[in-house]
Amino acid sequence: MTEKEYAKLVSERSPKSPIWRDCLGAFSVGGGICVLGQALMEMYAALSLERTQAATAGSMTLVVLSALLTGLSVYDDIARFAGAGTLVPITGFANAIAAPAVEFKTEGFILGVGAKMFTIAGPVIVYGTVAGVVYGLICWLWTIL
Prior knowledge:
With about 140 residues, the protein is mainly α. The protein has 7 helices and no strands.
């Protein structure tokens, strides 16, 4: 079988992706998460928090809600429908940390929850920190030149 024949066979047998439904689900759920975040920020600002503190409190609330929904196995159902719409916002990062912790809780708190919690999120934290340092160095060099 040649490569062209194999590619034709794969394209014939592969299920067709409902791209418009997937895009609409990702857009609506991702947008809904962002609207919820904005509403939380406005609520915290109305409770007399400064703008930066209100934004921080809103982000923290989204992280807690995401971890709670992950623990209750609801976040997976939302992600199955919305796809990338749940992964892009800050809630996706909270889910990436909470999901392995929930999955490996039977192995105990140290070797299960504690060790596995950062298997997915660890590289994100490391590369985010390194990127921040590199960006800071570039900005610093830009100001002194």
